[in-house]
Design brief:
By secondary structure, the chain is mainly alpha-helical. The chain folds into three domains: 91 residues; 120 residues, hpI Integrase, Chain A, CATH 1.10.443; 67 residues, no CATH class. It has 13 helices and five strands. A three-stranded antiparallel β-sheet has the order 1-2-3, with no helix packed on it. Strands 4-5 form a two-stranded antiparallel ribbon. The N and C termini lie far apart (66 Å).
Length: 323
């Protein structure tokens, strides 16, 4: 692994200190660090003498960015500036009210694509249909397992890409998910059908050899797949299946399979007559969330959930003689 390049701008010390403190509190900040390095390179090349940020600097840095990306980066920069203001009270802090020109007029939030079971079946079947290209079968198997685990176990792409042989317990039918958000690890039980697929993938990937426990489960040409690469492969497949437009960032994402997992689980609890509210802590634990608030972001209201909730309300509130 290549050593991380040091920050070079005049705000280098602030950026490095911010990342160090936040990570000590349990945040990984992978995306934030990438954005800060972009900003650091931009400052070094365009504003090498700047000792603080300003409206013109941020406007120049965010030129051409999509509204949602602009909003995300502004939120990150604002946190860094607030961190700096603790020791430098006069430091610049971007503010929506004082600097409205920085904020996009409209940044729509992505609405998760909730797959139906038929759509999931079609997507997984397409993943198992490799092309004639060299190495296509290995890539097809890795993509199929990625989509399967994202839905059936509710895993994040990064969690799937980091799975090793030693993380799979075939006897206990569990996956060990290491060092996820907030540096937490968790053990995730999987269904027998999913375990059978994992067992088959290991047998095909390694044959009769005994792989080392630290060997990555998903590789191509001897190199582990990154979450970024798996995301690109998944997006390409979704375009081919018609779940994404031919161009642009709209439509379904691989991460939407995790949203689908949560929605389908809630629907299943409704169908089983369970108290859904009391079950939410279990769902939060399984998905690796620190609290129910994080899990609620995955509770996309679908027509099926509304139907279940409506029937529950009717049973609870309808007059006795009308029941």
């Amino acid at each position: 692994m290549r050593p991380r390049r040091r920050f070079r701008s005049r705000l280098a010390k602030v950026m490095a200190s911010y990342l160090t403190v936040k990570r000590a509190l349990g945040y990984k900040l992978v995306t934030d660090e990438k954005a800060l390095r972009y900003l650091d390179s931009f400052l070094s090349s365009r504003f090498p003498k700047a000792t603080d940020l300003s409206v013109p600097i941020l406007q120049a840095w965010m030129t051409g960015l999509a509204p949602l990306t602009r909003l995300t980066r502004l939120g990150m920069v604002r946190q860094v500036c607030l961190f700096r203001r603790r020791t430098a009270p006069s430091a610049f802090v971007p503010d929506r009210m004082r600097h409205p020109c920085l904020w996009p007029t409209r940044a729509p939030r992505h609405v998760p694509f909730i797959f139906t079971k038929e759509q999931l079946r079609r997507l997984l079947e397409a993943a198992l249909t490799p092309s004639d290209a060299r190495g296509a079968r290995e890539r097809s198997n890795a993509l199929f397992m990625t989509l399967l685990l994202a839905y059936a176990a509710g895993l994040r792409l990064a969690e799937v890409s980091r799975l090793t042989v030693g993380d799979i317990d075939l006897d206990q039918a569990t996956l060990l998910i290491r060092d996820t958000k907030f540096f937490k690890s968790r053990v995730v039980p999987v269904a027998p059908e999913v375990l059978q697929r994992i067992r088959g993938h290991i047998a095909e990937r390694f044959g009769t050899a005994s792989p080392a426990p630290e060997q990555r489960l998903f590789q191509h040409g001897g190199r582990p797949y990154s979450s970024h690469t798996l995301g690109i492969l998944g997006s390409q497949l979704m375009r081919e299946c018609g779940f994404k437009p031919v161009q642009g960032r709209g439509g379904a994402r691989v991460h939407d399979l995790r949203h689908t997992f949560a929605v389908h689980r809630i629907c299943q609890w409704y169908e089983q007559g369970e108290d859904v509210q009391s079950r939410l802590p279990l769902l939060a634990t399984y998905m690796g969330h620190k609290d129910i608030v994080s899990t609620q972001r995955y509770m996309t209201v679908t027509a099926e959930i509304l139907g279940h909730a409506g029937r529950r309300f009717e049973q609870a509130c309808a007059p006795t003689e009308g029941r």
